[in-house]
Amino acid sequence: MTAHPSPTTALPDELRSAPASRVLVLNSGSSSVKYQLLDMRDGSRLAVGLVERIGEETSRLVHTPLTGGGAEKRERTGPIADHDAALKAVAEELTQDGLGLDSPELAAIGHRVVHGGLRFTAPTVITDEVLAEIERLVPVAPLHNPANLTGIRTAQALRPDLPQVAVFDTAFHTTMPEHAARYAIDVETADAHRIRRYGFHGTSHAYVSRRTAELLGRPLAEVNVIVLHLGNGASASAVAGGRCVDTSMGLTPLEGLVMGTRSGDIDPAVTFHLKRVAGMDEDEVDVLLNKKSGLVGLCGDNDMREIRRRIEEGDERARLAFDIYIHRLKKYIGAYYAVLGRVDAVVFTAGVGENAAPVREAAIAGMEELGLVVDADLNAVRSDEPRFVSPDHARVAVAVVPTDEELEIAQQTFALVGNALS
Ligand code: AMP
To answer: Residue 210: pLDDT above 70?
Structure first.
């Protein structure tokens, strides 16, 4: 089981003694729900789990109770038709552990919501009006906001009396200065249609940059870090003194790095060309760039483990996909180095960033003049703990800091509900 760090934000005393101290965190994807039940008195996990392949014949629920020592993970396989059925199955598992969703100890449900637009700069208690606003943002987050909404509505149906809080991926990036957030297009058109760079993965960038300052043993306000969140979705951010000053995703999560299935940066004229020359309509181009591009488009695989395996076997397409992925990553590291002026750490996180040593090695290779070096032995270490992969003497630290979006969402949710109650 992954060791999870304790929370970094101290809770006010009145909340420590509050009877309702649990928060259920739901991260609803299009065909999956990840969940964690946390006790906010100490940030510990009571149960964690995942429902995947919702809507398929081969759905799977993996539930791990973490109370009472020696509890084993339980697994269910077989069709789970939709999010409603998924959440009901999760509720049954929790009830079996004495952690049912009807418990008075449950203080709130915190939902990861991908796009909060300009309106949501902080976690928000969900009302009908908030739901309507999240719905209005669906066109700019078509892969995510609909699934997030389904998760919220399903949870509301199960516990209509309970506060439900939306924690937005975009919120951390609202500190970006206008010169980083605006596209260089006609201002009236941009404003009329709320076109600007919002950025995503904000809870991860916030959490990881804070943990990096702790790893460095320095106050957050003093450190400049480049955070590389490399999962199936991927984004980079430049964080100066705990505030985001630039990030690679834009109006939607499509911009920036090469991802599992998304192209990242591309000349927008490619889309006109596809319409004029290939006869594709908007939806087809959307699917091409969001679902059939990136690593999967380049070599047919989006799992970095599989790509590395193919490279070891001499597969040229996998090699080229890897090289394109790394080249883009290097460009962002260089760009954010220039934006920040001084960098204290470059930090890798998420599935690829935490696990793929060859990606870290290749991304940093050749940057000695910038003070960036990876130590091969340290880089080869596998661990769930935050750690340096640069040698002691390095001018700029290179680190791996496992992200913990669920803890961040739970803390933000609980802080908001506590404030609302006081
Ligand atoms: P995430 O979106 O953060 O869950 O990351 C998922 C991705 O992490 C997968 O698609 C893989 O590409 C990558 N990944 C997970 N484990 C490993 C590993 N041991 N080595 C390389 N890549 C990994």
So the answer is: yes
Q: Which listed CATH number (3.30.420.40, 3.30.1300.10, 3.90.226.10, 3.40.50.2300) goes with 13-176?
A: 3.30.420.40
What is the pLDDT at residue 70? Answer: 62
Pairwise CA distance, residues 28 & 148, whole Å: 5
Pick the atom of ligand 1 nearest to 308's CA. Answer: 21
- Any ligand 1 atom below 6 A from CB of 309: no
Q: Backbone dihedral region of 345: left (phi > 0), alpha (psi from -120 to 50 degrees) or beta?
A: beta
φ, ψ at 335 (rounded to 5°): -65, -45
- Pocket mutation for ligand 1, best pick of 114, 205, 232, 307 (most atoms within 8 Å of C-beta): 232
What is the reported pTM?
Answer: 0.88
Residue 169 appears among annotated catalytic residues: yes
Rama region for 67: left / alpha / beta (φ>0; ψ in -120 to 50; rest): beta
Domain boundaries defined on the chain? 13-176, 218-405
pLDDT higher than threshold 60 for residue 421: no
**pLDDT(422) > 80:** no
Q: How far is the CA of 351 from the centre of ligand 1 (A)?
A: 4
Provide the CATH topology of domain 218-405: Nucleotidyltransferase; domain 5 (3.30.420)
Q: What is the mean pLDDT of the chain?
A: 92
